[in-house]
C-alpha cells in the first residue's frame, strides 16, 4: 500500500539553526508553509515532531506555535494540539464585520501620518497587483497594500489584529481566487482609497474601505454558497 505523504516532509531545513534564531526561524518557516499550502488546513503540528525536524528543543517550537496561533494561522484543539486553522468558510460575514471595525480604526489613525513615501509604496503595490497573474502573489500583495495604508496607526496591538485578518484572507485568496474568477476586480477600489489618503480625507478613505470590504464579503459569500465553492471547501 502506498503511504500518504506527510506534510512535514515538504519542509526542508538547511543545517543547524543558531539558538538565538530558533524561534523566529521556525515561526517564519511554518508560516510560509501554511500560506503556500504545504501545510494544509487541519494538519496537526506536534511539538516533538517539529523539534526533531528543526534539530532544536521543544521550547522554541512551543514559542513559535504560540506566535502562529496569535496570528490566527493555528488553532489548538483538545486531542490534536496545534492544528493549521481552517480558511474563511461559513463565518465569512462575521469575519469581515470584524475586519471592517478594526481596519476602519487603523486607517483613521494612520491617514494623517502617512508620508509621500508611504503613498508611493502603496501606488507601486497597486501596479504590481494590476500586472500580477500569480494568484498566490495577489493575496500577498493585497495584504501589503492594506498594511501600508494602516502602517502609521499608533495602536500596535490593533495593527497586529488587523494583520491577522489579512493573513486569513491571504490564505483564502491563494487557494480560491482562480476558481472565483477574480484578479483585478479590486484595483479601482484600491486606487480610490489611496487617492483619498493622499488628499488627507480620513472619513472619505474609511467610507471607501468599508465599501471595499463589503464588496469582498459579498463575492466570497456568493462563491462559498455556489456548487464550485462548496465542492472546493469540502476537499481535505
What tags apply to this protein structure?
GntR family transcriptional regulator, 236 residues, globular, transcription, 10 helices, Four Helix Bundle (Hemerythrin (Met), subunit A), three-stranded antiparallel sheet, transcription regulation, 2 domains, WH-like_DNA-bd_sf, DNA-binding, mainly alpha
Major beta-sheet overview? 3 strands, antiparallel
CATH architecture type of the largest domain:
Up-down Bundle
Q: What is the overall pLDDT average?
A: 85
From the alpha carbons, calculate the radius of gyration and give it in angstroms.
19 Å
GO molecular function: DNA binding; DNA-binding transcription factor activity
Keywords: DNA-binding, Transcription, Transcription regulation
Pfam families: FCD (PF07729), GntR (PF00392)
Protein name: GntR family transcriptional regulator
What would your notes on this structure say?
The chain has two domains: 78 residues, Winged helix-like DNA-binding domain superfamily/Winged helix DNA-binding domain (Arc Repressor Mutant, subunit A, Orthogonal Bundle); 143 residues, Four Helix Bundle (Hemerythrin (Met), subunit A) (Up-down Bundle), CATH 1.20.120.530. Strand 2 and strand 3 form a beta hairpin. The mean pLDDT is 85. The longest helix is centred in the last third of the chain and has 25 residues. The chain has ten helices and three strands; from the N terminus they run αβααββααααααα. It is globular, with a radius of gyration of 19 Å. With 236 residues, it is mainly alpha-helical. It has a three-stranded antiparallel β-sheet. It starts with 21 loop residues before the first helix and ends with a helix. Keywords: DNA-binding, Transcription, Transcription regulation. This is GntR family transcriptional regulator. One of its GO terms (molecular function) is DNA binding.
